[in-house]
Design brief:
- It is a single chain.
- The protein is of the alpha/beta class.
- The protein is built from eleven helices and eight strands.
- α2 links the parallel β4 and β5.
Length: 309
């Protein structure tokens, strides 16, 4: 059986149900240990959308910003070759989508629509003293999206997301996610609405600064709530929920998801445990990455070529 070496991903999970097949690729953003032949995932995805077997019934759901203008976005991991190639590929398909209305790729990273400044920038204190916003206004889009605070909103993207989410408010995932947000709201927001974000962060206790990512599933633990940790898990959880909805709603038989390792891992488990998808096969690292020595993780997987022909 012929094998295909793919650079720019450390793992692949293939799932299916009676309606469609899902390919979930796991990205290790800063890993530069590629396959020797340098066949990158962007080249693979480009060949897939041109393949007659796939192209009329295929979509790519990608961890790319869900905004109109990317000019002001700080590019992370700019030295990673696979991400450089992928951004060029993504730019081309999105431009084609805008001009010709032939869309293969759909952005899924709604986090910058929810929060004006990213968790990375907050943790690094980048120009934090220049960023003037109070606690309520910083989190208001998330609170509005989950009906925790109700007010008149004129943000088109948030209103669109609220309309989409409104169809799934009775789902178990939505209920657990809202519970997590409510716990965060009660601990950090409700009594601090008018405090400036930068002043609030400076006064946090050492415990609140702890950033301990829960790598298990489900990640909706409520025993310990750490400020930065919870912002990351809440915003990531909302993005992952949006990806799940796209998987459900987009009318394509073949769906390819490309996201960071932990997002892909969560999405896989949600699809299996909550939406009746079955795991067909896996390649590379898709579980328990925290138990593996970083130095041994290659950004390269060896896959049976039959899945992409």
């Amino acid at each position: 059986m012929l094998k295909l070496n793919i650079s720019g991903t450390i793992g692949l999970s293939i799932l299916e149900n009676e309606n469609n097949k899902i390919f979930i690729f796991y990205d290790d953003h800063q890993n530069k240990k590629y396959c020797k032949d340098n066949y990158f995932i962007s080249t693979l995805l480009n060949s897939i959308i041109k393949n007659p077997k796939y192209n009329k019934d295929t979509c790519l759901i990608l961890e790319e910003p869900f905004i109109n203008n990317n000019d002001k976005i700080k590019v992370l991991w700019s030295e990673s070759k696979h991400l450089e190639y992928f951004r060029k590929f993504y730019s081309k398909i999105i431009n084609k989508c805008g001009k010709n209305k032939v869309c293969f790729g759909f952005p899924a990273d709604i986090r910058l629509s929810l929060l004006d400044i990213s968790i990375e920038e907050i943790m690094e204190n980048i120009e934090l003293n220049k960023y003037k916003i109070n606690i309520f206004n910083y989190f208001k889009h998330i609170l509005y999206l989950f009906d925790i605070e109700v007010f008149s909103n004129n943000n088109k993207i948030i209103n669109f997301l609220k309309l989409v989410f409104s169809k799934y408010t009775k789902s178990n995932y939505y209920i657990q996610l809202k519970l997590k947000i409510m716990n965060f709201y009660k601990k950090f927001i409700i009594n601090n609405k008018n405090i400036m974000l930068n002043d609030f962060i400076k006064k946090l206790s050492p415990e609140d600064y702890i950033f301990k990512y829960d790598k298990g599933y489900p990640f909706f633990d409520t025993d310990n709530i750490y400020f930065f940790d919870e912002i990351d898990k809440i915003s990531s959880g909302i993005m992952e929920f949006f990806i799940i909805i796209m998987v459900i709603l987009l009318p394509y038989k073949f769906k390819f998801i490309y996201a960071g390792y932990y997002h892909s891992n969560n999405i896989k488990h949600i699809l299996i445990n909550s939406y009746n998808y079955k795991l067909i096969t896996e390649y590379g690292i898709t579980e328990n990455i925290e138990k593996i020595n970083d130095k041994t993780i290659n950004n390269c997987i060896n896959v049976d070529e039959k899945y992409f022909i």
